[in-house]
Structures are given as C-alpha cells and as structure tokens.
Specification:
It contains two helices and ten strands. It is mainly beta and 160 residues long. The protein has one domain. The strands form three sheets. The protein has a four-stranded antiparallel beta sheet with strand order 1-2-4-5, with no helix packed on it. A four-stranded antiparallel beta sheet has the order 7-8-9-10, with no helix packed on it. The protein is elongated, with a radius of gyration of 18 Å.
C-alpha cells in the first residue's frame, strides 16, 4: 500500500512539472449577453516567459460564454493577439534558448484545440520574436499574431 501511495505521489509531482505556464487574467470585456451562463467576452492575460526574466507577453482572445462556456465545453475562437514587452530594467536568461520554442500552451476546447505562444530567436538583430496561433487535432488555423522584444546591446541571447 505504501508503495502505491508513493508511486501515485511521484506521478502527480512529475505531471505537475509538465503543466503549461499559468496565465494571469488582467482584464476582460463582455461582447455578447447570454441569459444563461457567462457572457461571451474578450480576455487579456499576462504570461511571464519562464526562461527570459523581465519579459511578459499579453494575449487577448475570445472566450465563449453560455452554459457550455461556463462548464468548459465550448470551443473558443482561433483569433488571438499578442504583445510582449520588457517589464524589468534588464532582461536576464535562466538558460540557453533554442532557436524556436513553444513557450506557453493553453487548452481552448475540451480535447481538440490549443493556443500556443512560440518564441523565435533573431540572433542577427538580438531580438526575441513571439508568435501566437492555435492548432487543432485535425486542422489548425492560419490566423496568428506576432510581436518582438529587442534585447539591449551587450547582452547577447544565449543560444543552445
């Protein structure tokens, strides 16, 4: 029995390290009134880049309301907008960065759709480029948004 509990706790600890970065919702506006459940709305969420201290990405996207939206069964639209900014005096790196990396993911429907924020390095311009898009199990969406954060001269981006 103790072995079962230990393996279950170890599995939960391992699974918790694989969870996507948590967003902090900083605002929302209502777009469609619903009699039952939440209204349809546009939310603005902040994501701190876990490997780049001092950079925060702000993503705005549609959230479907109603009864399905209130219980997490509605599929949100694929449109999203992104703006990433330097929010500290200096940008620091916790590790070497790959040339391209999926930084954040979030579920947009029960099973099939996910929102992605990808970081791409532009070493020639010493710039971090962030792009947001959604994908689907069968077919993704070409709708995307892009933003860039220049890194100060004399602070080269450490590439893997």
């Amino acid at each position: 029995m103790n072995r079962f509990i230990l393996s279950t706790l170890a599995g939960l600890a391992l699974a918790s390290t694989a969870l996507p970065a948590a967003a902090q919702q900083i605002g929302e506006v209502s777009t469609v009134f619903r009699f039952l459940g939440k209204n349809d709305r546009i939310v603005v969420e902040a994501y701190d880049d876990p490997k780049v201290k001092g950079v925060t990405c702000y993503v705005s996207r549609a959230r479907t309301g109603g009864i399905k939206g209130s219980v997490g069964l509605a599929e949100d639209k694929s449109e999203a907008s992104i703006a990433c900014r330097q929010v500290a005096d200096t940008i620091t790196f916790t590790d070497k960065l790959p040339a391209q990396e999926d930084v954040f993911t979030e579920r947009l429907s029960l099973v099939f759709k996910r929102l992605h924020v990808v970081r791409v390095i532009d070493p020639v311009r010493n710039t971090l480029v962030y792009m947001t898009y959604s994908d689907r199990l069968i077919e993704g969406s070409p709708q995307n948004s892009v933003t860039a954060v220049p890194v100060q001269r004399g602070n080269p981006i450490p590439l893997k």
